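Protein MgtC
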Amino acid sequence: MFSSELPIMDILIRLSAATGLGFLLGLEREIRNKPAGLRSHMLVSMGAATFVMVGLHVLFATAEGDPSARIDPTRIVEGVIGGIGFLGAGSIIQARGSVQGITTGASIWIAGALGVASGIGNLPLAGLLAIFALVTIAVLGYFEKRVLGDQG
């Protein structure tokens, strides 16, 4: 049967992965002096991982006791995504006729996804997502500015 308690080393690894990957994403935003930087991305990723681990704990604890009291773990992920979407939307502003902060809002959303993937223990998915996100933000951002001449 399942144990409702995650071993402390699993918790440490999952939270460390979420924190570290959030750090990498936030560092790129911090270097570019964007509104949501290092701490914001790390906190979003850690929080998402924690909510998922708590949800798994509740799921397995109810499965061991009364099976009719089971919860749907996808609802926890939905709640995390909604909350993170609210934070991301807060980083998007309209100034002088142009919309700014969309990439930062999207990176906050990705930080949440990093946390969810880390929280469920899918570290390869979290690591690959971080790599793809950093390539998209940093490499393609450079390409847009230098090659295409985008001023955004």
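thats it. The mean pLDDT is 86. The beta strands are 93-95, 98-100. bye
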